[in-house]
Amino acid sequence: MAIDIKLGMKRKFDYPKSIKEVDELSGEEFERFVFRYLKEYQSYEGQITEKNDYGVDILLWYPENKSNRYGVQCKRYGPKTVLTENDLMKMQKGVDHYGLRDPKTSKPNLILFTSAEEHQVSTRGLAYIENEEIEAYYRDDIIDILKHLDEGLGRNIDQSNYNNIAFDSSKKKNESFKENSKFVDMLKSERKNISKYNKITPVYLVYNDKTIEDIIIKKPITVESLLEVTGIDHKRVELFGLYLVNKIRLFLQLEPLQPKKETLINKEEFENFLKELRKKIAAYNKIDKLYNVFNNETLLEIVEKIPKNEKELLNIKGIGPVKVELWGKYFIAEINKFL
Q1: Which of 26, 66, 154, 241 is the most buried (most CB within 10 A)?
Q2: 11: helix, coil or strand?
Q3: pLDDT recorded at residue 260
């Protein structure tokens, strides 16, 4: 059974106690669960939208900055459901309708909470999440919320309530963590340090247990390889990537990396180079129109962002997974030669 949480004198709310109880919630109940958690434990104010929600289930804002609003979509999915790009694109309708843009950057403030696992999101869906900079929280994050509630509410800890979590989902994973307990302790300690320094709460929003497990398996020793770790995106790399990589290198008894100096290039030369490269790609792949490789708007964004790997290339507007698969590796190799 769920536990009762009293909210003032008006009503009480039943927080789910296990991931199984989360799976048994209806779509509307899942929305209320996410909303109450964000309000009670993350200091947001907000409201649940009407049925015609324009792809946004919850509106959020901080009391001290009510003009900067966030739109949340909640998806309670089964284990075989695929979350597609089309499902996510519905959120864009709410951006203009509810005014969900950051006042400083004009970027959409969009958040996704889903009980699905990350691998249930289609390739194009994942690319869309990255391109639109949607904050995405998956099944492992929902389990971390349950852990946070257990701690905050003083509930008895029952490990069976946390399936699909790195420490508990299989004997193999448990053994892996036991064998690497010092590595785990270091990563947990640095998670707290990063959380404190960057004022990120709760700590699982820095990275969760599944990410810790993937770090142990992959042992990333460069910023680029850190991006290959589950749960580490470009935002996190920009915020604390070099710091974390150097802590991993120190643990593995390797020399620390130095901050990279900005690559200085002649933009006009680089632009001309990209135009010639576009012609080569079009000719080799028998693409009749140059703009079908990428248009001039995309070209200028490449000049500004200088992608150095396929993942960074995928974040360029107008470059999708199909193009990256077709000529992405060649394109990046040629750019790196130019640099």
Answers
A1: 241
A2: strand
A3: 65
CA–CA dist 152, 17 (Å, integer): 12
**Res. 130: pLDDT tops 90:** no
Pairing of strands 58-62, 65-75: antiparallel
Question: 331, 2, 85, 62: which is closest to 199 by C-alpha?
Answer: 62
Give the SS3 label for residue 83: strand
Say whether 245 sits in a helix, a strand or coil: helix
Domain that holds residue 29: 3-142
**DSSP string for 128-155:** HHHHTT-EEE-HHHHHHHHHHHHHHHTP
Q: Please determine, for residue 14, whether its predicted confidence score (pLDDT) is greater than 50.
A: yes
* pLDDT (0 to 100) of residue 334: 92
Provide the residue count of the chain: 339
Q: Are residues 215 and 323 in the same domain?
A: no
Q: How far is CA 115 from CA 62, 122, 168, 202, 231, in A?
A: 25, 15, 18, 19, 15
Residue type, 57: D
Contact 77, 114 (CB under 8 A): yes
Q: How many domains are there within the chain? A: 3
Question: Is 257 a member of any domain?
Answer: no
In a domain, 173, yes or no: yes
281-287: Cβ within 8 A, 24+ apart = 281/327, 281/330, 281/331, 284/327, 285/326, 285/327
In single-letter form, the type of residue at position 4 comes to D
For the chain, give the percent of residues with pLDDT over 70: 90
Q: 245, 272, 277, 280: which is closest to 259 by C-alpha?
A: 245
CA 3 to chain centre: 30
Which residue is associated with the tokens 């770790």? 229
**Cα–Cα distance between 229 and 203 in angstroms, integer?**
18
The enclosing domain of 72 has a CATH number of: 3.40.1350.10
